Each structure stands twice: as structure tokens, then as C-alpha cells.
């Protein structure tokens, strides 16, 4: 059975396409269980995408004949953050955020400096280790039907910080290739949280990173594993 999903223009990552984490989270919801979502082409904005579940269990989002994303059922993600990060540490790290005022991701709805309505997920380096961190206090825009932060917004904030965990130069061009997320507990609207990310490994242009959303007292609420691919050249 085919349905559709639409990525509204306000949920962009790059200027002309959908935020990868948000888009992947919407597709993952159609799987009904743990899934790895792979992004195969830029996610178009304000255009319905056909969501088709194939006989092999893979759920695909199509723009006409173009494969945009596919979600593969998977085992639950086995990943934990290297350590808890305090709110005070995260606030200090935000001061070292390296996002550009004018660049390909400067208007991302999660981490864009050039947007007044961005989520403000500005992950900067922590002193002494490979983590980046930021605080995040989700407002009502992120609420789902139950009043808690909707899963697709959890996916979105687990996307952007992984980039800053992997690359020191904010002009590095790299794109999300796949993302898997495990949500352990509700992320509460109006509560201050800590979002962290850390590098896991590299293989040529393929770079793997982890991310987590923590409560203010350090409990892990959600984790994600992201594969980013750097542009050639």
C-alpha cells in the first residue's frame, strides 16, 4: 500500500532540500520498528513523496521514479554515549560552535545561524575529548500529539551535531548517507536537554559518528548513529 509524506520547506537542512535527520525520521515512522534509513538523493521540499513498502520489507520514499530514501528494518541500535555531559559543559561548548553565518547549511532549521527560528542546536567542542555538545530546550513547535517532542524532531537534532563531531573545518562539504535512532524515553517540551555527538570511525570518504540526547541530569533519552560521506575533491 502506498501513502505519501511531504517535507515542508521550513524543515530544510541544505537550503533547497530537507534536513536529513527529520526526513529520515518521518520515513522511519512508516516501518513500525527499528530501522536504518538511507538517503539516496536530495529530499525535495513541499512535494509529496510516495511511500511504498516492498515485498522484501524495505520501505522506500519515491519522487516519481527517483529513489529519495529507503528504510531497512534492523536490530535495535546498540550504542551509548562515551560519557554524560553536564548542562554547564554544554553551555560552554556552545560558545565554540563553528557553524557558518553564510554557507550551505546556514539556514538549516536545526543548526542554522542565519535563521531566527532555528532550534539552536549549536554543538561545539568540549575541552579534552572528541565530543561536541550543546543544550537544547525544545518548544511547542516540536510537540507531537502527546505533547512530547515528536520522534522526527529527535532524529533531526541527532543529525546535525554529528557533522561537527567529525569535521573541524565548517566549510567541509559532507552529507548524511544513513541514520539509525533509538529513542529510550520521552524528550520533554520546555525542558533543557544536552545533545552530544562523537566520532566513531572513518573509511575513506565515509565517516561514522554517534549522537545522543540527554536529560539535564545525564540520563540517555535517545541515541543515533550517522554515516556521513564527504564530497569528492
Question: What order do the helices and strands follow?
Answer: EHEEEEHEEHHEEEE
| Strand fraction | 25-35%
Kindly report the spatial arrangement of strands forming the biggest sheet: 1-3-4-5-2-8-11-10-9-7-6
pLDDT averaged residue by residue = 95
Q: First CA to last CA: what distance?
A: 42 Å
Describe it for me?
The chain is an alpha+beta fold and 233 residues long. The protein has helices at 20-28, 87-94, 151-157, 160-166, and strands at residues 2-5, 35-39, 49-53, 59-63, 66-73, 124-125, 132-136, 174-183, 193-203, 206-215, 220-230. The chain has an eleven-stranded antiparallel beta sheet. A hairpin with a 4-residue loop joins strand 10 (206-215) and strand 11 (220-230). It is globular and about 50 Å long. The model has no long low-confidence stretch (mean pLDDT 95).
Set out the fold topology.
Layout: E1 2-5, H1 20-28, E2 35-39, E3 49-53, E4 59-63, E5 66-73, H2 87-94, E6 124-125, E7 132-136, H3 151-157, H4 160-166, E8 174-183, E9 193-203, E10 206-215, E11 220-230
Antiparallel strand pairs: 1-3, 2-5, 2-8, 3-4, 4-5, 6-7, 7-9, 8-11, 9-10, 10-11
Essential attributes:
233 residues, eleven-stranded antiparallel beta sheet, 4 helices, globular
Q: What's a concise summary of this model?
A:
This protein has 233 residues and is an alpha+beta fold.
Amino acid at each position: 500500500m502506498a501513502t505519501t509524506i511531504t517535507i515542508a520547506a521550513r524543515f530544510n537542512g541544505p537550503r533547497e532540500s530537507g534536513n536529513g535527520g527529520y526526513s529520515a525520521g518521518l520515513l522511519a515512522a512508516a516501518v513500525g520498528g527499528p530501522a536504518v534509513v538511507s538517503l539516496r538523493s536530495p529530499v525535495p521540499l513541499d512535494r509529496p513523496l510516495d511511500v511504498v513498502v516492498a515485498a522484501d520489507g524495505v520501505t522506500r520514499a519515491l519522487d516519481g521514479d527517483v529513489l529519495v530514501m529507503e528504510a531497512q528494518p534492523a536490530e535495535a541500535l546498540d550504542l551509548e554515549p562515551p560519557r554524560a555531559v553536564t548542562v554547564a559543559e554544554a553551555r560552554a561548548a556552545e560558545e565554540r560552535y563553528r557553524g557558518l553565518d553564510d554557507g550551505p547549511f546556514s539556514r538549516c532549521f536545526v543548526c542554522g545561524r542565519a535563521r531566527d527560528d532555528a532550534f539552536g542546536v549549536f554543538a561545539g567542542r568540549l575541552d579534552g575529548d572528541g565530543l561536541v555538545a550543546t543544550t537544547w530546550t525544545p518548544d511547542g513547535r516540536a510537540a507531537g500529539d502527546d505533547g512530547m517532542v515528536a520522534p522526527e524532531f529527535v532524529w533531526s537534532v541527532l543529525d546535525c551535531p554529528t557533522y561537527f563531531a567529525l569535521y573541524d573545518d565548517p566549510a567541509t562539504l559532507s552529507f548524511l548517507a544513513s541514520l539509525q535512532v533509538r529513542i529510550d524515553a520521552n524528550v520533554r517540551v520546555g525542558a533543557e536537554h544536552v545533545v552530544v555527538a562523537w566520532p566513531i570511525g572513518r573509511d575513506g570518504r565515509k565517516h561514522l559518528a554517534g549522537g545522543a540526547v540527554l536529560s539535564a541530569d545525564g540520563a540517555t533519552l535517545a541515541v543515533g548513529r550517522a554515516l556521513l560521506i564527504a564530497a569528492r575533491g
